[in-house]
Amino acid sequence: SYVLTQPPSVSVAPGKTARITCGGNNIGSKSVHWYQQKPGQAPVLVIYYDSDRPSGIPERFSGSNSGNTATLTISRVEAGDEADYYCQVWDSSSVVFGGGTKLTVL
Amino acid sequence: QVQLQESGPGLVKPSETLSLTCTVSGGSISSYYWSWIRQPAGKGLEWIGRIYTSGSTNYNPSLKSRVTMSVDTSKNQFSLKLSSVTAADTAVYYCAREGQQLIDYWGQGTLVTVSS
């Protein structure tokens, strides 16, 4: 089965840029989606098809995908961005999630 | 705006069958894939499986032997059964809509505890 690897945690100061990676074998050939989950809430889609943003998601959120790594980038990080972030792909008729990354805003 | 709501027992005994139903409102259940996803406390998301409105299913290989999903289009509902549960099945269970290989709508989630 396909495995997605994320760092368990990323820390960033307010106003700086956070980068959360998602590694997978030739992930660049797949479409990657990113979800934000705050405590006690359901996940929310923040990036889809590698780099598209749903309506209502700030432009500060962006994504890229190439080779073996997809990246979620959050610019000008705010306290409200503190959350868990999950990458997701579709592989062999299955939805596959990464293990999740906890973003801490210092 | 599509809304999903999980319902079912919050407590299930070990070795018994967990049963949950998801009711979809604000849109038709037809022509979409509908998924179940779970999340143990403090852990990540695990996809359990999906069902299409035709009844076609795909299950996570790690759970396939214990999972059954069904759909009732007349009630705009779909359901999950997970048999022979253990404490490891304790989790928040989400129902969700799957559109074009991503999850675009989620239920609020329901906690199911497996305990005697």
3D architecture notes:
The complex is a heterodimer of chains A (106) and B (116). Chain A is mainly beta and 106 residues long. Helices cover 0% and strands 46% of the residues of chain A. Chain A is built from no helices and 9 strands. In chain A, the strands form 2 sheets. In chain A, strands 1, 3, 4, 7, 8 and 9 form a 6-stranded mixed beta sheet that branches. In chain A, strand 3 and strand 4 (44-47) form a beta hairpin. Chain A is globular. The model of chain A has no long low-confidence stretch (mean pLDDT 97). In chain B, the strands form 2 sheets. In chain B, strands 2, 4, 5, 6, 9, 10 and 11 form a 7-stranded mixed beta sheet that branches. Chain B has a 4-stranded antiparallel beta sheet with strand order 1-3-8-7, with no helix packed on it. Chain B is 0% helix and 54% strand. Chain B contains no helices and 11 strands. With 116 residues, chain B is mainly β. Classes of the chains: A mainly beta (106), B mainly beta (116).
